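Hi W.,

Here's what went into the run:
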Amino acid sequence: MAFVPDSPFDQDDFTDFINTVNDSLGSLEFEIRRAQDEDNGDKILALTNTNEQTIAQVATGYSPLELEYFKHLLDAIVTADDELYCISSTAAVNEASKLKNKENKSLQLTKAGAEDLLSRFVQDKWLIKSKKGALSLSTRTLLELQSFLKEAYEEQMQECTLCMEIITKGQRCNVAACAARLHQHCAKTYFANMNNPTCPSCRSPWDGKTLIGLAPNVEAPHTIRRR
Amino acid sequence: MSDRRRRIVIDDEDDYGSKGSSQKSNGKRGAPSSSQSHSSGSQKRVMRDVDDDYSDQDGHAPKTIRVTTVGSKVHDILPEDFERFVKDTVRLAIFSSHSEAATVKRDDIKALLGTHTRLYDTVFERAQERLRKVFGMEMAELTTKGRSGKNEEKGTKTYILRNTLPLDLLGSESLDWDGQLEDQGLLMVILSFIMVREGVIFESHLKEHFRRLKLTEEGSDIDKKMDMFMKRRYIEKSKMEYLDDSGEKIEMEVRWGARARAEIPEENVVRFIEEIFGPEAPKTLRESIVKASNIKIKATRDNDVDGADAAENGAPGSSSNAIHL
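Here's what came out:
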């Protein structure tokens, strides 16, 4: 369900309002977080569970095995080579056979079972599936697992140079050594009045064509390569 | 309800108020801000923010609160643990509402309490207060009504979350129901047909109504929708065998399901029908609906449109229901 303001409203008042609501929610380990969709820049509010130590069965409706599979996929997506932040559905299904439990025994997740589960992850908006079958992280996952991702994948997770939020899709600086990354919507804002865009960090020319995340209408690699 | 039990609730009101500030300034956490003048017996009651590292609090031994449950049995429990139980119950209720069944079972809540299952009633009650105050919702028990519909309603020890906010607020156009409105409309139509026949309708008759509403045309998914409503316990079907002039017959009867009974006040259905009729409604419409349905709500609509809801869900003005921002 989305909140759709039908008339212009005062941003500051709105922020105050959200903060007030969050004061109440905080005592129950919930929080309303704000973000912008990495694909289309839509502004989003989400009620999130801040108790991340238990990405619990009860919180998500998934069984421990299913959660294990999700974590596995999360890992493959986040660590994907060349800052792609995605894997192909084929690769995701193949990963299912590699699931091991604590005693290092293979877990029973069939190919068909994995396919079903994948569509549930997509349906429940934990993952996004592109038309070409590439799986990437949804806004929901980025919001709800924010702290987890930043802690567990300190090296791999990057911040947008403008909004300072996690970025897995957008533009990056042509200079390989430069850390500048911008969401598409942030780049639009930042370069709006520049005739010759330059990198906000290293000042080299910015063509906006070097990407972080997979380019649209491109298939993800069929095998998983980690950085 | 014992006096002592009620007082715990009052104590915590203070605690909410100080929560925002005490959370930010970690150093002062644990100051017995709400304990002054409230002592129960020899125990001083201290409500603090829950935190795992509380026990090294100024080097003092943890203080317990005393909870009196039904039958005047006394349980000493750490305030942190008690708060944790309440919090977990609220969280369980919220998470469960997103599952397909949308229900939470009493046993699941009890499982959270570990060895303290005797505190169930107190924890449940406190969780309800938090749900009403923070979310504008409460847990309502689903009931069985028995096949004939005449049996007494029995509790099922299963709860769903239901709204406690005034209806007018929900109708606000600020909410985008994400395409769910179509299903809700259809469900209200079905519930209306059932209600005005005193709570039960033959499925064949219902289908006849669908046909007239052009809901059964080619490519219609009305059967699927009916199945979904059944799965979600908004409607129930049962087999009915009866004799008429042409011999023995079998019909399926459709009734309101447990979830509809818990979630949807009959008043809302009356209002829905009135809305469908619009300004051309006959003046006696409300009276006719109430009479046909054989339900006990006011046959005349007065100015206080929220009156009926209030009776159902707790008065809007009462502290448990109003949102204090």
